[in-house]
């Protein structure tokens, strides 16, 4: 379930200087802070493609608990590409507004550490994902990705793996 915690500070992280190209193409969700909107889902992945300068399409797919496939389409743009290239505003299904996502770090080949935070009064709701290009990361790669969050003050004690294996069915 989604964790809402008392905030030592209600200030959420602001992304590091990482280019949006780190988001391009296929990403497999490897670990995350559990979120309500992904409850019961497995085989979660995302496909990112550039559709305009500083704008990417986002297609998230997953397998539901009943075995059916689900997807959600959206887009993301860099509001400040020159000063905050790792900051993306992500929206799904043409909903108004969007959420601030930050690529905290990536090696552009193996993993990306992605973060979002919403302040609610004296509390904050954190979202964090370790995305990978493949269904597995080496122990060293996973430790490195986790350490990105730790270095940015994110508690990783609630991280859970996302089920991914050779039996996963993906679409499209």
TrEMBL record:
Any single GO CC term annotated in Swiss-Prot or TrEMBL for this entry: cytoplasm
Official protein name in the record: Lipocalin/cytosolic fatty-acid binding domain-containing protein
InterPro entries found in the cross-reference section: Calycin, Lipocalin_ApoD, Lipocln_cytosolic_FA-bd_dom
Homology family: Belongs to the calycin superfamily. Lipocalin family.
Domain (Lipocalin/cytosolic fatty-acid binding): residue spans on this chain: 34-164
GO biological process: lipid metabolic process; response to reactive oxygen species
């Amino acid at each position: 379930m989604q964790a809402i915690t008392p905030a030592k500070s209600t200030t959420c992280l602001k992304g590091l200087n990482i280019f949006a190209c780190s988001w391009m193409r296929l990403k497999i969700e490897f670990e995350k802070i559990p979120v309500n909107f992904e409850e019961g889902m497995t085989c979660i992945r995302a496909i990112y493609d550039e559709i305009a300068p500083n704008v990417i399409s986002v297609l998230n797919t997953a397998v539901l608990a009943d075995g059916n496939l689900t997807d959600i389409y959206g887009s993301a743009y860099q509001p400040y590409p020159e000063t905050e290239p790792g900051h993306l505003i992500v929206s799904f299904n043409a909903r108004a507004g969007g959420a601030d996502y930050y690529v905290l770090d990536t090696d552009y080949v193996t993993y990306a550490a992605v973060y979002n935070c919403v302040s609610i009064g004296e509390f904050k709701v954190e979202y964090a994902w370790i995305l990978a290009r493949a269904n597995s990361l080496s122990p060293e790669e996973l430790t490195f990705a986790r350490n990105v969050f730790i270095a940015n003050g994110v508690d990783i004690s609630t991280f859970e793996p996302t089920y991914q294996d050779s039996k996963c069915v993906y679409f499209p």
